[in-house]
Write a structure and sequence with these properties.
The structure is a single chain. The chain is an alpha+beta fold. It folds into three domains: 5-104, Helix Hairpins (Orthogonal Bundle); 118-159 and 198-255, HSP40/DNAj peptide-binding domain; 262-352, Urease metallochaperone UreE, N-terminal domain (HSP40/DNAj peptide-binding domain, Sandwich). It has ten helices and 15 strands. The chain has helices spanning 5-9, 17-31, 39-55, 58-65, 70-74, 91-99, 126-131, 276-281, 340-352, 369-377; strands at 118-124, 133-144, 160-161, 170-177, 180-187, 196-197, 210-221, 230-233, 249-255, 262-264, 267-275, 283-289, 292-298, 307-310, 326-333. The protein has a four-stranded mixed beta sheet. The chain has a three-stranded mixed beta sheet with strand order 1-9-8. A two-stranded antiparallel ribbon has the order 2-7. β4 (170-177) and β5 (180-187) form a beta hairpin. α2 runs antiparallel to α3 and α2 crosses α6 (91-99). The longest helix is centred in the first third of the chain and has 17 residues, at 39-55.
Length: 380
């Protein structure tokens, strides 16, 4: 083959049909004679048409890939770039190149369209997130105009057929090119593609079929929600233009910080601070949990940094049963200001325990990378 059709369209030999079509559209927009009348450009336009005619047809493409003549093998009389019967491209492909896939659609577009989705953010407390609650919210959205019932025309009037496009929603124009007469279509400028005009718009909504209003809604918030959780209320968004189907409303949760508990997933964490004597002797510490009053059992000899779990006292799992845990972290305080009597008592305690001059206990520090490698080679 003297001509490399793949190179003409700028695609790989294993390109998909979608990739070939996109490449043709891109080049057609650049090289069409109506856009670029240069004679050299017209020759280039014929080349991409011929390449697309072959590569867009699976049978012709197979013949071409095997080294045969795809045009003679196809049995069609259409020349390169022609619109004869059996060609791999046609008027719709040229229209798609300039107007996209929507260029193939015909007829007026509807004035009624779906409304947009809306979102509102609400704040809730930790207790409400743990067990669920019900909230009333106020939403400012577009609602159907009661004066015209969403039609956009003033009471007693109605939309009329556009006299420019005669209700088709588009107008056509015929232009001449080396290919012959080419017809293009575009939305009617008078009716904006609707096919009808509203000579007397509704005074309440100015012809849009909707107005802004404040509504009060009741939202059920399930147990286990967290900051960022979104609850979908279907059909509670904005009414669409022309009284169209409403969109959805999304309620996004923002959880307020708690004065005692910190949430980590479905678990709750808090810290209790104890004097050294209480941690040594053991005690009970009252704690107000989400379920009411409880006592934390501090066992004798509890060390700073220990944690005490209270199972099932955390947040309800959003999906599935059960709840998380409440983890109580213990922090032991060492006294820093002692009077003479307290200091004497501590010295006596240290003497009884043999801790007057403790040597301390040291643990190995973190080794560096080279030290660990050295120990590994030495077999340690």
């Amino acid at each position: 083959m003297a001509t490399d059709y793949y190179a003409v369209l700028g695609v790989r030999r294993d390109a998909s049909q979608d990739e070939i079509k996109k490449a043709f559209r891109r080049l057609a927009r650049e090289l069409h004679p109506d856009v670029n009348p240069d004679p050299k450009t017209q020759e280039r336009f014929k080349e991409i048409n011929a390449a697309y005619e072959v590569l867009s047809d699976p049978n012709k493409r197979q013949v071409y890939d095997l080294g045969g003549d795809p045009l003679s093998a196809s049995g069609t009389g259409a020349g390169a770039g022609g619109f004869g019967q059996g060609a791999g491209f046609g008027f719709s492909d040229i229209m798609d190149a300039f107007f996209g896939a929507a260029g193939g659609q015909r007829g007026p577009r509807s004035r009624t369209r779906r409304g947009q989705d809306a979102m509102i953010r609400i704040d809730i407390d930790l207790e409400e997130a743990a067990f669920g609650t019900t909230k009333e919210i106020q939403v400012d959205t577009a609602v159907r105009c009661n004066t015209c019932n969403g039609e956009g025309a003033a009471p007693g009037t109605s939309a009329q057929t556009c006299d420019m496009c005669r209700g088709r929603g588009e107008i056509s124009q015929v232009t001449r090119s080396f290919l012959g007469q080419v017809m293009t279509s575009r939305p009617c400028p008078q009716c904006q593609g609707f096919g009808t005009v509203v000579p007397t718009p509704c005074p309440e909504c100015a012809g849009d079929g909707r107005v802004r209003a404040r509504r009060t809604l009741t939202v059920k918030i399930p147990a286990g929600v967290d900051t960022g959780t979104r609850i979908q209320l279907a059909g509670e968004g904005e009414i669409g233009p022309g009284g169209g189907q409403p969109g959805d409303l999304y309620v996004e949760i923002s959880e307020n910080p708690h004065k005692i508990f910190q949430r980590r997933g479905d678990d709750l964490h808090c810290t209790v601070t104890l004097p050294m004597t209480a941690a040594s002797l053991g005690t009970k510490v009252p704690l107000e949990t989400l379920d009411g009053a409880a006592e934390i059992d501090i066992r004798p000899g509890t060390q700073s940094g220990q944690s005490i779990p209270l199972h099932g006292r955390g947040i309800t799992h959003l999906r599935g049963g059960g709840r998380g845990d409440l983890i109580v972290h213990v922090e032991v305080l060492t006294p820093s200001k002692l009077d003479a009597e307290q200091e004497n008592l501590l010295r006596q305690l240290a003497k009884l325990r043999g801790e007057e001059r403790p040597s301390g206990q040291f643990a190995p520090g973190q080794q560096g990378l080279f030290s660990r490698l050295k120990d590994a080679f030495n077999g340690r």
